[in-house]
Amino acid sequence: MRCEFMSETTLVVQLPKELEKQLRAHYDEMISNAVARVFEDKELYKPMVRMSGLSRWLDVSTTTIQKWTKEGMPTMVIDGVTLYDKRAVTRWLKQYER
Fold first, then answer.
1. What is the DSSP secondary structure assignment for residue 79, as one 8-state letter?
2. Over the stretch 64-80, which tens digit does the pLDDT of each residue have?
3. N or C end of the chain: smaller count of CB under 10 Å?
4. What's the angle, vertex CA 28, arms to CA 37 and CA 34, rounded to 5?
């Protein structure tokens, strides 16, 4: 590794090629994971979700969602598509608060 000062505010570090390659691969993986999380998390901010999204948001199984729906959890069905309003679901769940 070699360091040289270009000016008062710049430091140039030359790494061995293999270390540079490993660092680039590591940062590429970090960035890819961060982008994937953004796409996964975007569903968290949607006000309306399907059953699978609600299941992930509440961290319960889709079987539990189906059971709660039968017990009166609010849904909307539009052209055969069942949607859940997260605010309405939250209000419904609050009745079980202790």
1. T
2. 999 999 999 999 999 99
3. C
4. 15
Contact 61, 55 (CB under 8 A): yes
Q: Helices 62-70 and 51-58 meet at what angle, rounded to 10?
A: 110
DSSP-derived 3-state class of residue 61: coil
- Per the confidence metrics, is the pTM higher than 0.70? no
Triad 50, 54, 59: Cα angle to 5°: 150
Q: Architecture of domain 47-94 in CATH?
A: Orthogonal Bundle (1.10)
Amino acid at 76: M
Structure token digits, residue 49: 């979700």
Amino acid at 25: A
Residue with tokens 């309306």, as numbered in its chain: 48
